[in-house]
Amino acid sequence: MGVTPITSRRWRVCSTTRSDGDVHPLYTSADDLRARQLAATGRRWAMLDQRHGVGVVHADTAKCSDRLVVGDVIVVDRPDLAIAIWAADCAAVFFLGAGGRVVGAHAGWRGLAAGVIDVALDALDDTVERAIVGPTIHPCCYEFGRVELDLVAGGIGASASTIAGHTTAGRLALDVPRAVSTACTRRNIEVAEIGDCTGCSPQYFSHRRGDRQRHATVAWRDAW
Asked: What are the residues whose beta carbons fall under 8 Å from the beta carbon of 150, sequence distance 6 or more?
């Protein structure tokens, strides 16, 4: 993988890139998906049929590696079971709990507006040891409407001015990394970022650039 992973004695969080191939679970064959997952991380991943909502799924019992379950927040307690959020501009946010639980959230603008960060943190139900956001679109490439900006601001409990930015052309934009960080800061959590802007960097797939393919951010914990 082209992205330097965040690792520790207990955790592994990393993102795939274009070089790893498309990992969209709906448009990639099961054989290709399995091969690309194993090549990228040495293990299979549990993924969801993401819908820009706030549905919570526990990967330990849902067998997400074998079939897609609808949801945008995925929870795992078992060591060595990797969970992944696939995206191509939306933010993949992971919360690593002190007690061993890992929660991943698919945080596009609709999910942020619906409060997906709070839902994910409530699902963690633990002290956050690390919070990490994967590659996502930055304001330079994300022109955004005023009405939608207000909706996102309401979903993260902040003012619109806090998460507003400007594109390289000077138009109003949504700052997704700041929106994620602001939502977490409200709950006294600091966020680390891995990866660059998906709209700028040729390493990643971007919905805004017309890509149908998806990369993924993947997290798991080793056995303690």
From this structure: 160
- Angle of helix 116-124 relative to helix 176-185, nearest 10 degrees, comes to 50
Q: Report which residue type is found at 57.
A: V
**Beta-bridge partners for 46:** 83
Which SS3 state, helix, strand or coil, does residue 46 take? strand
pTM for this prediction: 0.94
Residues 175-193 have pLDDT tens digits of: 999 999 999 999 999 999 9
**DSSP character at residue 5:** P
Which stretches of 6-143 are assigned E, i.e. beta strand?
A: 6-7, 11-15, 45-46, 48-49, 56-58, 69-70, 73-76, 82-87, 91-97, 102-107, 128-133
pLDDT band at 6 (very low <50, low <70, confident <90, very high): low
